[in-house]
């Protein structure tokens, strides 16, 4: 019997599978595989890893999947045109947002733009109080006109968020029933299906985000499910959830926002499980992939869950709230494929832009011209150019040297100094992320063990630990596919 887990990242798709003895329940064999992520057809990358590992998925009784498709669709603004239906008088709550203004002294500060434009936000009369008591019956008289207007603008998904629906969802249920009867083909999400917490802006934004990515996530899971069925996989496939649990494809398609941090979460769970095996209860996990670096803090063996999760929140932007339980992770745009670039003031930066899987770092020899952290590690011989990617790829060192020289001339440094500078800046960015989950929350890094994984974790871990005085660093076996391994730690 096989247990299989697949993790789709921004650059690579990972696979881990166990051969299980059905009588004893023990793993007889553990194998891994890795291939490039295939944007636009992520299921192709998943099956590339299965074929590479020579896995017959029809023999598997368990398949778990983690993905970055939801968070990528949001951050890259690749969701669908979305409409919003809310209670009369609350049309603009999603735009008014909160008074949070992180860039306090910027007199030209602008709030983050809502994911639903004002012309696609509509109101219906009806009121429920905070105790769930109906004050004014819901009036759906003009709902057909609202839906006709949405059709005119080619809306592909609708979010429904009515006042105090966390206490009484009857009004939202009536709106959904009407929409499903009047427009059966449209995707629709209501706030009571996602969360039962108060705060209108947070609930509205969460519902809008869920509707924004629902058709994309549904299509993605449908394609993968179809491919699994064609390969004679007979049991229910599962998707990793942001809260650390797993759920079926069918359940996840109803509320796909629950997999917003699907992939990174499994790495944190894997670190916690590894800590239990080796007697390390206080851990800082660091996952350095091709596109991003993710870190989280585990105290006394417990993974921390955050119910006040925000995306794109930084020093200059208030970000967007997601009212869902999410494993507490800090994620930054610094990975092996992060691009080194020079600004107008001749200052060197690394990330958040990434070379991705195509064309990838210059060293891949696929036509890339932007020097990345991986290329810098090759120049400094921190990566063996004669055994690049496990010997699967011959590093294009001629191109690496050529494009590094161009960058070095802008900085008036040597090629080697430029490469070392790229690595130091990347490390500094990761140190700041590690501080956000530790020092900034009152934890002393010296009391924790650093477990580093992902394709680039081992490259940077010791430098980061030295800077933060972390006494012990652990690099797991097969660390480059560790997040996929974490999914197999499920109780199912």
Automatic annotation (TrEMBL):
GO terms for cellular component: cytosol. It comes from marine metagenome. Transmembrane segments: none annotated. One of its GO terms (biological process) is glutathione metabolic process. Pfam families: Hydant_A_N, Hydantoinase_A. GO terms for molecular function: 5-oxoprolinase (ATP-hydrolyzing) activity. This is Hydantoinase/oxoprolinase N-terminal domain-containing protein. Residues 203-492 form the Hydantoinase A/oxoprolinase domain. InterPro entries: ATPase_NBD, Hydant_A_N, Hydantoinase_A, Oxoprolinase-like. Residues 3-181 form the Hydantoinase/oxoprolinase N-terminal domain.
